[in-house]
Design brief:
Helix content is 21%, strand content 41%. The termini are far apart. It has 164 residues and is an alpha+beta fold. It folds into 2 domains: 27-98; 99-164.
């Protein structure tokens, strides 16, 4: 990467998320979806731009440190994308997420995501909880991964107490 490259993604501090729990009550997001082929995104850039433009036009952008773009793959052919907002965004699919979310930060290549899923499941189980759903926040774009030398991913596990 060139020495004069100006990163577009803010530098990430893993200690703000790794091993932390978050109780979200009506946390606001807009939701869209990305076409995928075997979990590989086909139109992510276009969807991200469309979502971000709606958020900016509505003046609903959170501060950099509060921004999350969560991804959830319900199948190998589709990824749901959730972007945080500070308020309702017109002409968007506005949703809220509520519940307990355990976060763990991983640093590695995308090919290790399935390994990270298994580690997340083990981690959550060690805390006496079970997982309802796992969302992933990818902290850097490909150019910023090269610039910073890390490919951090935050796994957010929506949890519930394990009944024994």
């Amino acid at each position: 990467m060139e020495n004069n490259y100006k990163p577009c993604c803010p530098e990430f501090n893993p200690s703000l998320f790794d091993g932390k729990e978050f109780d979200w009550m009506q946390k606001t997001f807009i939701k869209d979806s990305v076409m995928t082929f075997m979990h590989m995104p086909l139109n992510l850039h276009q969807v991200m731009l469309r979502m971000w433009n709606k958020i900016k036009n509505a003046e609903a952008a959170p501060a950099d440190q509060d921004f999350l773009m969560l991804c959830y793959d319900p199948s190998a052919w589709k990824t749901e994308v959730y972007m945080t907002t500070t308020k309702i965004v017109p002409n968007a699919n506005n949703i809220t997420l509520s519940g307990n979310f355990m976060a763990k930060v991983f640093d590695g290549p995308y090919k290790d995501v399935s390994k990270f899923f298994k580690e997340m499941e083990t981690y959550v189980a060690s805390k006496g909880k079970s997982i309802s759903k796992i969302y992933i926040h990818y902290t850097y774009c490909p150019k910023c991964i090269k610039h910073y030398g890390h490919n951090y991913m935050i796994f957010f596990a929506e949890t519930q107490e394990t009944v024994i």
